[in-house]
Amino acid sequence: MARKMLIDGELDKSGQEEQHYDFDLFVIGAGSGGVRAGRFSAQYGAKVAICELPFHPISSELSGGVGGTCVIRGCVPKKILVYGAAYGPELEDARNYGWEVNERVNFNWKKLLHKKTEEIVRLNGIYKRLLSNAGVKLFEGEGRVIGPNEVEVIQLDGTKISYSAKHILIATGSRAHRPGIPGQELAITSDEALSLEELPKRVVILGGGYIAVEFASIWRGMGATVDLCFRKELPLRGFDDEMRAAVARNLEGRGITMHPCTTLTKFEKTEDGIKVHTDHGEVILADVVLFATGRLPNTKRLNLDAVGVELDKMQAVKVDEYSRTNVPSIWAIGDVTNRMNLTPVALMEGTCFAKTVFGGKPTKPDYLHIPCAVFCIPPLSVVGLSEEQAIEQVNGEVSVYTSTFNPMKNTISGRQEKSVMKLLVEAETDKVLGASMCGPDAPEIMQGIAIALKCGATKEQFDSTVGIHPSAAEEFVTMRSETRRVSSNKPKTNL
To answer: Where does FAD bind (predicted)?
Structure first.
């Protein structure tokens, strides 16, 4: 029986008998989004294939691995290193809690690295089993599109095999960007940073985004000296300015040297290390220089131009609300589309794709109230609008509620590091528009707050919720006094 497909609520009636294809769906890229789309499509009865480059912890044009960037060289190994880095300061804090910690505490980088590698190998195997259990055929090799309904797989021995598919899904993610600075070959990206053979003692990081502040926290927590150079006045452009300032204070408080409004101009290899030149005439010596300057969509080798798939100026695949390209049989999800580049978002897009194409239920990804976290130490987590976005988007006044406090744990440890919480409320409707927190456990707390915002919670409902005492989270339901009220007339900052 010919398989029917629902798009925009209408049954596809193109012909009584469909053309025969090797597969109903062929997915290029077995990261989080591609695996989710492939598995769920197979559960709807589709015949599915997926291809992925051979496993390697460091990404290249010819290496990858089932599980993708997040599992192999992104979120998961990075969070493991964050956990490892946090223990150093925690051991210092423990002394005031009665723990007699020896003066000298050694850190074994190679042991942590080995444990990290063991874990990503384990997860790589789990993802393979998920595909196998769902009945998805896995091909190891490089996939490229050679026709609207044809994919070519270049196998490990160089031979090429082509397969036909009714639908092709591009889910190849993104790769680290390397700016063209003289001596740039001396620098590394986050891929290599997760697998360094030796722990560096001196690090210079270029960038002010997620990856930059996270690795700054990791290396500083492990005892390295860290210089963080970024172009704006504050790190984490695009986040709430007040929260960005809180992160910057915490990074400085933990001993990271901040270089705002700074970029790097040249790297030189010397006997003493890498000589790093800034545009302010400074020279910093480093063992490692990390480029944390963003990521680019992985479209270079997909042959999309040949079949007419439109790309944007960043070379990301252009898609409609349902993740469909301008070629009706070709779709794309995840970072390769450069919409909202988060692993859970790619999972959502993969789910929506499967429902739309094979589940008979056209479903658009919903990008409202998506929580996210920056795993610096301590972390920042947000959901909904920043204050700057609220001022720009809300037609009326916005009530701002803030709380800055010393976490209870710090009152005994003596650590001088404030937690900051913030709620943004539409004054006219009392609806909570955004929530932010910088402090311990922020991501764990914000996941629950995100559910409230998704349900359209009001400030009155926050206020009527009983808090858990003693906890930091209870601050979100006890912020009763308005800190300030802002409107769209407030001048925009240039941070």
So the answer is: 79, 143, 172-174, 335
